[in-house]
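Quick one:
INPUT:
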Protein backbone atom coordinates (compact mmCIF):
# COMPACT_ATOMS: atom_id res chain seq x y z
CA UNK A 1 0.00 0.00 0.00
CA UNK A 2 1.38 3.42 -0.95
CA UNK A 3 0.53 6.32 1.29
CA UNK A 4 1.07 9.18 -1.12
CA UNK A 5 -0.16 12.74 -1.14
CA UNK A 6 -1.19 14.38 -4.41
CA UNK A 7 1.60 16.17 -6.18
CA UNK A 8 4.54 14.32 -4.63
CA UNK A 9 5.24 11.87 -7.44
CA UNK A 10 8.89 13.00 -7.57
CA UNK A 11 9.44 12.66 -3.83
CA UNK A 12 11.82 10.03 -2.52
CA UNK A 13 9.85 7.01 -1.33
CA UNK A 14 10.52 5.67 2.15
CA UNK A 15 9.77 1.95 2.23
CA UNK A 16 8.74 0.14 5.43
CA UNK A 17 8.32 -3.60 5.81
CA UNK A 18 8.32 -6.35 8.39
CA UNK A 19 6.02 -7.91 10.97
CA UNK A 20 2.35 -7.74 10.08
CA UNK A 21 1.31 -6.74 13.60
CA UNK A 22 2.99 -3.33 13.14
CA UNK A 23 1.84 -2.48 9.62
CA UNK A 24 -1.49 -0.87 10.54
CA UNK A 25 0.28 1.41 12.99
CA UNK A 26 2.91 2.31 10.41
CA UNK A 27 0.18 3.26 7.93
CA UNK A 28 -1.48 5.56 10.45
CA UNK A 29 1.86 7.10 11.41
CA UNK A 30 2.84 7.45 7.76
CA UNK A 31 -0.40 9.20 6.85
CA UNK A 32 0.01 11.67 9.71
CA UNK A 33 3.66 12.28 8.86
CA UNK A 34 2.90 13.02 5.22
CA UNK A 35 0.27 15.59 6.15
CA UNK A 36 3.03 17.53 7.90
CA UNK A 37 5.63 16.74 5.22
CA UNK A 38 3.82 16.92 1.86
CA UNK A 39 7.10 16.45 0.00
CA UNK A 40 7.46 12.96 1.48
CA UNK A 41 6.13 9.60 0.35
CA UNK A 42 5.87 6.50 2.55
CA UNK A 43 5.14 3.01 1.28
CA UNK A 44 4.17 0.27 3.74
CA UNK A 45 4.68 -3.16 2.19
CA UNK A 46 2.53 -6.25 2.81
CA UNK A 47 3.69 -8.48 5.65
CA UNK A 48 7.25 -9.76 5.36
CA UNK A 49 7.52 -11.02 8.94
CA UNK A 50 10.15 -9.77 11.36
CA UNK A 51 12.98 -11.83 9.89
CA UNK A 52 11.93 -11.04 6.32
CA UNK A 53 11.77 -7.33 7.07
CA UNK A 54 15.23 -7.31 8.63
CA UNK A 55 16.67 -9.25 5.69
CA UNK A 56 15.04 -6.76 3.31
CA UNK A 57 16.58 -3.87 5.27
CA UNK A 58 20.07 -5.37 5.17
CA UNK A 59 19.67 -6.03 1.44
CA UNK A 60 18.62 -2.41 0.82
CA UNK A 61 15.09 -3.32 -0.28
CA UNK A 62 13.44 -1.33 2.55
CA UNK A 63 14.54 1.71 4.54
CA UNK A 64 12.93 0.69 7.84
CA UNK A 65 12.02 -2.76 9.15
CA UNK A 66 9.48 -3.34 11.90
CA UNK A 67 10.10 -6.34 14.11
CA UNK A 68 8.29 -8.06 16.96
CA UNK A 69 11.54 -9.48 18.30
CA UNK A 70 14.94 -8.20 19.29
CA UNK A 71 17.82 -8.37 16.85
CA UNK A 72 20.06 -11.40 16.80
CA UNK A 73 23.82 -11.03 17.20
CA UNK A 74 24.21 -11.92 13.53
CA UNK A 75 21.78 -9.18 12.45
CA UNK A 76 23.61 -6.60 14.57
CA UNK A 77 26.94 -7.73 13.12
CA UNK A 78 25.47 -7.33 9.62
CA UNK A 79 24.69 -3.66 10.35
CA UNK A 80 21.17 -3.54 11.78
CA UNK A 81 20.28 -1.36 14.76
CA UNK A 82 16.94 -1.07 16.52
CA UNK A 83 14.90 0.78 19.09
CA UNK A 84 11.83 -0.36 21.01
CA UNK A 85 9.06 2.08 20.12
CA UNK A 86 5.93 0.38 21.51
CA UNK A 87 4.42 -2.67 23.16
CA UNK A 88 0.99 -4.13 22.50
CA UNK A 89 -0.73 -6.93 24.42
CA UNK A 90 -1.37 -10.27 22.82
CA UNK A 91 -4.94 -11.46 23.28
CA UNK A 92 -6.97 -14.62 22.97
CA UNK A 93 -9.64 -13.72 20.43
CA UNK A 94 -12.59 -15.34 18.73
CA UNK A 95 -14.77 -14.68 15.74
CA UNK A 96 -17.51 -12.13 16.55
CA UNK A 97 -20.21 -14.79 16.91
CA UNK A 98 -18.43 -17.08 19.38
CA UNK A 99 -20.60 -17.63 22.51
CA UNK A 100 -17.91 -16.84 25.08
CA UNK A 101 -16.52 -13.74 26.79
CA UNK A 102 -13.67 -15.08 28.91
CA UNK A 103 -11.42 -18.11 29.12
CA UNK A 104 -8.95 -19.69 31.53
CA UNK A 105 -5.53 -21.05 30.66
CA UNK A 106 -6.81 -24.52 31.50
CA UNK A 107 -9.76 -24.16 29.11
CA UNK A 108 -7.42 -22.90 26.40
CA UNK A 109 -5.14 -25.91 26.93
CA UNK A 110 -8.13 -28.22 26.41
CA UNK A 111 -9.00 -26.48 23.13
CA UNK A 112 -5.45 -26.82 21.82
CA UNK A 113 -5.20 -30.51 22.76
CA UNK A 114 -8.58 -31.24 21.18
CA UNK A 115 -10.16 -32.34 24.45
CA UNK A 116 -12.68 -29.52 24.02
CA UNK A 117 -14.03 -29.20 20.48
CA UNK A 118 -17.34 -27.39 20.97
CA UNK A 119 -18.46 -24.13 22.54
CA UNK A 120 -21.02 -24.17 25.40
CA UNK A 121 -23.88 -23.81 22.88
CA UNK A 122 -22.71 -26.88 20.97
CA UNK A 123 -21.19 -25.04 18.00
CA UNK A 124 -17.84 -26.20 16.65
CA UNK A 125 -14.60 -24.61 17.85
CA UNK A 126 -12.21 -23.83 14.98
CA UNK A 127 -8.68 -23.33 16.24
CA UNK A 128 -6.39 -21.10 14.16
CA UNK A 129 -2.69 -21.82 14.69
CA UNK A 130 0.39 -19.71 14.04
CA UNK A 131 3.75 -21.15 12.92
CA UNK A 132 5.89 -22.76 15.61
CA UNK A 133 8.58 -20.08 15.32
CA UNK A 134 6.12 -17.16 15.44
CA UNK A 135 6.34 -14.84 18.47
CA UNK A 136 2.65 -15.46 19.25
CA UNK A 137 3.26 -19.20 19.57
CA UNK A 138 6.36 -18.74 21.72
CA UNK A 139 4.47 -16.42 24.09
CA UNK A 140 1.54 -18.83 24.25
CA UNK A 141 3.85 -21.67 25.30
CA UNK A 142 5.06 -19.61 28.26
CA UNK A 143 1.57 -19.32 29.79
CA UNK A 144 1.98 -22.66 31.58
CA UNK A 145 3.70 -26.05 31.28
CA UNK A 146 0.32 -27.45 30.28
CA UNK A 147 -0.03 -24.87 27.52
CA UNK A 148 3.43 -25.72 26.24
CA UNK A 149 2.41 -29.37 25.92
CA UNK A 150 -0.94 -28.42 24.43
CA UNK A 151 0.74 -26.44 21.64
CA UNK A 152 2.84 -29.50 20.73
CA UNK A 153 -0.32 -31.60 20.55
CA UNK A 154 -2.12 -28.98 18.46
CA UNK A 155 0.62 -29.06 15.82
CA UNK A 156 0.13 -32.82 15.50
CA UNK A 157 -3.63 -32.56 15.01
CA UNK A 158 -4.73 -32.92 11.36
CA UNK A 159 -6.98 -30.45 9.61
CA UNK A 160 -6.38 -27.35 11.75
CA UNK A 161 -6.11 -23.95 10.10
CA UNK A 162 -2.61 -22.44 10.14
CA UNK A 163 -2.07 -18.77 9.31
CA UNK A 164 1.39 -17.75 8.14
CA UNK A 165 1.21 -14.00 8.76
CA UNK A 166 -0.70 -11.62 11.02
CA UNK A 167 -3.12 -10.44 8.34
CA UNK A 168 -4.03 -13.96 7.20
CA UNK A 169 -4.48 -14.89 10.85
CA UNK A 170 -6.89 -12.01 11.55
CA UNK A 171 -8.85 -12.70 8.37
CA UNK A 172 -9.24 -16.40 9.25
CA UNK A 173 -10.42 -15.54 12.77
CA UNK A 174 -12.97 -13.08 11.38
CA UNK A 175 -14.19 -15.40 8.64
CA UNK A 176 -14.50 -18.79 10.35
CA UNK A 177 -17.57 -19.25 12.59
CA UNK A 178 -16.50 -20.29 16.08
CA UNK A 179 -12.83 -19.51 15.45
CA UNK A 180 -10.35 -18.95 18.27
CA UNK A 181 -6.71 -17.90 18.19
CA UNK A 182 -4.36 -15.07 19.08
CA UNK A 183 -4.09 -11.49 17.87
CA UNK A 184 -2.43 -8.32 19.14
CA UNK A 185 -4.63 -5.51 20.43
CA UNK A 186 -2.64 -2.97 18.40
CA UNK A 187 -3.33 -4.81 15.15
CA UNK A 188 -7.03 -5.14 15.95
CA UNK A 189 -7.27 -1.39 16.64
CA UNK A 190 -5.22 -0.09 13.69
CA UNK A 191 -6.85 -2.43 11.15
CA UNK A 192 -10.41 -2.20 12.52
CA UNK A 193 -10.63 -5.96 12.89
CA UNK A 194 -13.99 -7.48 13.86
CA UNK A 195 -12.71 -9.79 16.58
CA UNK A 196 -13.95 -10.51 20.09
CA UNK A 197 -11.24 -10.08 22.72
CA UNK A 198 -11.53 -12.50 25.64
CA UNK A 199 -10.32 -11.95 29.16
CA UNK A 200 -7.71 -14.57 30.07
CA UNK A 201 -7.82 -15.88 33.64
CA UNK A 202 -9.98 -12.89 34.51
CA UNK A 203 -7.61 -10.32 33.01
CA UNK A 204 -8.62 -8.22 29.99
CA UNK A 205 -5.56 -7.28 27.88
CA UNK A 206 -5.11 -3.51 27.62
CA UNK A 207 -2.41 -1.18 26.41
CA UNK A 208 -1.93 0.09 29.96
CA UNK A 209 -1.33 -3.46 31.15
CA UNK A 210 1.32 -4.03 28.48
CA UNK A 211 3.33 -1.13 29.91
CA UNK A 212 3.92 -3.07 33.12
CA UNK A 213 7.37 -4.63 33.25
CA UNK A 214 6.05 -7.85 34.80
CA UNK A 215 3.38 -8.43 32.14
CA UNK A 216 4.70 -11.02 29.68
CA UNK A 217 1.82 -11.77 27.28
CA UNK A 218 2.81 -8.84 25.10
CA UNK A 219 4.54 -8.10 21.81
CA UNK A 220 7.48 -5.71 21.72
CA UNK A 221 7.68 -3.63 18.54
CA UNK A 222 11.04 -2.43 17.23
CA UNK A 223 12.07 -0.03 14.49
CA UNK A 224 15.10 -1.45 12.71
CA UNK A 225 17.41 0.70 10.57
CA UNK A 226 21.03 0.91 9.51
CA UNK A 227 23.45 3.23 11.32
CA UNK A 228 23.93 5.19 8.09
CA UNK A 229 20.20 5.86 7.74
CA UNK A 230 19.24 8.55 5.23
CA UNK A 231 17.85 11.88 6.49
CA UNK A 232 14.25 10.93 5.44
CA UNK A 233 14.58 7.66 7.36
CA UNK A 234 15.95 9.39 10.45
CA UNK A 235 13.19 12.02 10.26
CA UNK A 236 10.42 9.41 10.20
CA UNK A 237 11.97 7.42 13.05
CA UNK A 238 12.13 10.65 15.05
CA UNK A 239 8.45 11.26 14.30
CA UNK A 240 7.46 7.77 15.51
CA UNK A 241 9.36 8.43 18.73
CA UNK A 242 7.98 11.96 19.14
CA UNK A 243 5.12 12.93 21.43
CA UNK A 244 2.79 13.12 18.40
CA UNK A 245 3.77 9.73 17.05
CA UNK A 246 3.57 8.07 20.43
CA UNK A 247 0.13 9.64 20.99
CA UNK A 248 -1.11 8.03 17.78
CA UNK A 249 0.13 4.67 19.02
CA UNK A 250 -1.34 5.17 22.50
CA UNK A 251 -4.77 5.76 20.96
CA UNK A 252 -4.65 2.48 19.03
CA UNK A 253 -3.89 -0.22 21.57
CA UNK A 254 -0.17 0.38 22.04
CA UNK A 255 1.88 1.31 25.07
CA UNK A 256 4.46 3.87 23.82
CA UNK A 257 8.00 3.00 24.81
CA UNK A 258 10.16 5.71 23.24
CA UNK A 259 12.19 7.70 25.76
Amino acid sequence: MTLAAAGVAQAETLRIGGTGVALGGMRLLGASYMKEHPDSQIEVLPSLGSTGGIKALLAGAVDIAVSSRALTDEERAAGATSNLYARTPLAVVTSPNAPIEDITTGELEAIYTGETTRWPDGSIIRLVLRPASETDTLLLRKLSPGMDRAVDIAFSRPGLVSATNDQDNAEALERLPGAIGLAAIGQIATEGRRLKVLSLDGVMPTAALSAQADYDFVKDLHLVTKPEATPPTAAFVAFVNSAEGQSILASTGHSPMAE
